[in-house]
Amino acid sequence: MEIKEIHNFNVYEESDFIKIQNELKKKIMLKNTFNKSSIRLVAGVDLAYWEYKNKQYGTCSIVVIDYNTKEVVEKVNSVGEIKVPYIPGFLAFRELPLVIEASKKLVVEPDIFMFDGNGYLHFNHMGIATHASFFLDKPTIGVAKSYLKVNGVDFKMPEGKESSYTDIIINGEVYGRVLRTRKDVKPIFISCGNNVDLETCTEIVLKLINRESRLPIPTRLADLETHISRRKLR
């Protein structure tokens, strides 16, 4: 799969991170740039970490499934040293090099990428799912297992029934959605990455839920693959 070179990753200062985010967020599109009926392949993306000899390493797994049959079409991995420390709000600068490396190995071309992380639900609207979209040149969705509090705003818990949700509204703007994917299980936190609207994000996520998890199949399988890869590499 061809990847766009939007910027390099030889930056390590927060001021540089913010400058790049501010430039990219001007280009975010919270509208569908595709026909929903044309969706065929959806990719799930996740990473796992470990330490060895005082250095931190990571592995990225991408699992592509058929949107209709839910069957796995392709799996790829990348591995490398992590050189950017964890700084809240700047996860993309830490993870994207491995995401890009793994994406380049894909033979198939996914229609949508789904990330274990946030997109528009971010203090600067530039979570990993949104940031990655500019390199991948594909619509992206953020699916987080836990809530990233922005500007001190808490979320409102949705009803306990399947498919119920509440929107996360901060300063009058919808940042994301708290979605109950299965009855009486913990909700997940979804947000647009780029080139997709929130209603479509919700529809896609719910279609990719099965009885094995509250998480959509692509990111759940990617999570499992990262743990398999990490065990082998460690």
Could you characterize the architecture of this molecule?
With 234 residues, the protein is α+β, with helices and mostly antiparallel strands. The protein has five helices and eight strands. The protein has helices at 14-25, 91-103, 128-136, 198-207, 217-233, and strands spanning 41-52, 55-66, 72-81, 112-116, 140-144, 165-170, 173-179, 188-194. Helix 2 runs parallel beside helix 3 (128-136). The record marks 86 as: Interaction with target DNA. Its EC number is 3.1.21.7. Pfam families: Endonuclease_5.
Summarize the structure.
This protein has 234 residues and is α+β, with helices and mostly antiparallel strands. The protein is built from 5 helices and 8 strands; from the N terminus they run H-E-E-E-H-E-H-E-E-E-E-H-H. The mean pLDDT is 96.
Note poorly predicted spans: none
Query: Which fold name fills CATH's third level, the topology?
Result: archaeoglobus fulgidus dsm 4304 fold
Number of helices: 5
The CATH class turns out to be Alpha Beta
Sequence of secondary-structure elements: HEEEHEHEEEEHH
Strand order of the largest sheet: 3-2-1-4-5-8-7-6
Shape: globular
Search tags:
endonuclease; 27% strand; Endonuclease-V; 234 residues; endonuclease activity; archaeoglobus fulgidus dsm 4304 fold; cytoplasm
Write the layout of secondary structure elements.
Elements: H1 14-25, E1 41-52, E2 55-66, E3 72-81, H2 91-103, E4 112-116, H3 128-136, E5 140-144, E6 165-170, E7 173-179, E8 188-194, H4 198-207, H5 217-233
Parallel strand pairs: 1-4, 4-5
Antiparallel strand pairs: 1-2, 2-3, 5-8, 6-7, 7-8
Helix pairs in contact: 2-3
